[in-house]
From TrEMBL:
This is PEP-CTERM protein-sorting domain-containing protein. Keywords: Membrane, Transmembrane, Transmembrane helix. InterPro entries: ConA-like_dom_sf (IPR013320), Ice-binding_C (IPR013424). NCBIfam families: PEP_CTERM. The chain crosses the membrane at residues 20-42. The keyword Membrane applies. SUPFAM superfamilies: Concanavalin A-like lectins/glucanases.
C-alpha cells in the first residue's frame, strides 16, 4: 500500500468513508505497517529479554523478564537500568520497550594488577537455567560497549586486549558449549565480534572465530551471530558456518566464516545454564575477568539459523507494542474526524 495514500486518508478521510471501508482500510494499514519486516519476529525467539523491568536503580532477578515466558533469571549481580537508549537504533528500529531502557552491566576490578593474575574481578551477570540453545541457532542484541573493565582508580584496564563475553551458552569443564562476545583490541577503544567453541568435549581442539567487524566503545550497535551446522559432518566443514552481523552508524556489515566443524556436541544441550554478561559469574581471577562492561537494549536467542533478510528485518522492526499503540491512535484520530 502507498504510505502517501495512507497518510492522506488519515489527515483528510473522505466524508462518505463508510464503516465497512474503514475496517478494510485499517486491515490494509496493519498489513502495510508490518510488510517487509520478515516472517520471523523477536516474539518468536526461544528466549527474548526486552530489559524493561524498571526505570532506574539496581536490577533484580524478578525484573529480568523473558517475554517468551520460557525462562527465569537468577543470580543477578552488578546490574542496573540504563535510560539513555537512543530513540532509533542504527538499523532504524525502536528501543525494545516504551521507555527506552536497557540493562547495564557494571563489572569491576577489585584488586588491580595491571592485567596480571593479581586482578580480581566482580563480574556483572545473570543466569538462566535450561536457557541455552544448541545445533543451528541465532543470537541478536542491541548493545553499547563501555570499554575494558576498569579498576578502582577508573583508568587501569583489566586485560587489554582481552575477551568480553556477552554470553556463555553452557560452556564448562566438559568442553561443550560456546561463547559469544567481543575480543578487545590493544587500543582499549575498539573490539571485534568473536565466537568460541570447543572440539566437542575437549579443550585440546578449540575453535575460535574472531571477525574483522569492529565496534567502538560508547556507540550503540545492532549485533547478531548465526551458526549453521550445515550437514553436521566433520568431513565437510565447509558446510558449517558462523555469520556475524554488525549494524552501526556506517550501515550493515556481515562476515561469514566456514571451515569449522560444528555439531550439537560443539554447542550444548538445552538443559545447560546460560550466563549473560561474562564467561563466569561471581568474583575471581579467572573467567570473571572476561566480563562485558556496557548495556543491552534486548537479547534474543533463536533455536534456528536465521537468514540475512530475517536478521535485517528484526534489526529494523519497531517494537510491536508501539506499532499496536500507533494503530489504535490512528484509528482514534479517524473516528474523531468522522464524529466531527
Amino acid at each position: 500500500m502507498d504510505m502517501t495514500y495512507v497518510l492522506a486518508m488519515l489527515v483528510a478521510p473522505p466524508l462518505d468513508f463508510p464503516p465497512s471501508m474503514f475496517a478494510r482500510f485499517f486491515i490494509l494499514l496493519g498489513a502495510s505497517c508490518t510488510a517487509g519486516f520478515g516472517s520471523v519476529t523477536l516474539q518468536q525467539a526461544d528466549s527474548f529479554w526486552k530489559f524493561d523491568g524498571a526505570a532506574s536503580g539496581a536490577a533484580s532477578n524478578a525484573q529480568i523478564v523473558d517475554f517468551t515466558g520460557n525462562h527465569t533469571a537468577s543470580n543477578a549481580t552488578r546490574l542496573s537500568w540504563n535510560t539513555s537508549v537512543p530513540a532509533t537504533s542504527p538499523a532504524g528500529g525502536a528501543p525494545q520497550d516504551t521507555l527506552g531502557r536497557a540493562l547495564s552491566f557494571d563489572p569491576f576490578v577489585t584488586v588491580v594488577g595491571a592485567g596480571t593474575a593479581d586482578d580480581t574481578t566482580a563480574a556483572a551477570t545473570f543466569q538462566v537455567a535450561n536457557g541455552t540453545v544448541s545445533g543451528n541457532f541465532s543470537v541478536l542484541t542491541r548493545a553499547m560497549w563501555d570499554g575494558p573493565v576498569l579498576g578502582a582508580d577508573g583508568v587501569t584496564p583489566n586485560d587489554v586486549p582481552g575477551n568480553y563475553w556477552l554470553m556463555n551458552n553452557g560452556l564448562g569443564g566438559n568442553g561443550i558449549g560456546f561463547l559469544f562476545g567481543l575480543l578487545g583490541n590493544a587500543d582499549g577503544q575498539t573490539a571485534r565480534l568473536a565466537y568460541y567453541t570447543s572440539a566437542g568435549g575437549s579443550f585440546t581442539g578449540t575453535r575460535t572465530s574472531t571477525s574483522t567487524l569492529a565496534i567502538t566503545k560508547g556507540v550503540w550497535y545492532d549485533i547478531g551471530m548465526v551458526v549453521d551446522m550445515g550437514d553436521g559432518n566433520a568431513a565437510t566443514p565447509a558446510d558449517n558456518s558462523v555469520t556475524f552481523y554488525l549494524h552501526g552508524p556506517g550501515g550493515l556489515q556481515t562476515q561469514t566464516v566456514t571451515g569449522m566443524y560444528i555439531s550439537d556436541a560443539t554447542t550444548t544441550a538445552p538443559s545447560s545454564t546460560l550466563t549473560v554478561g561474562s564467561e563466569s559469574g561471581g568474583v575471581g581471577t579467572s573467567n570473571q575477568r572476561k566480563s562485558f562492561d556496557g548495556s543491552l537494549d534486548y537479547l534474543a536467542m533463536f533455536d534456528e539459523s536465521l537468514t540475512q533478510a530475517e536478521v535485517q528485518a528484526i534489526f529494523a522492526a519497531p517494537e510491536p507494542g508501539r506499532a499496536l499503540l500507533l494503530g489504535l491512535g490512528l484509528a482514534g484520530m479517524l473516528l474523531r474526524r468522522r464524529r466531527a
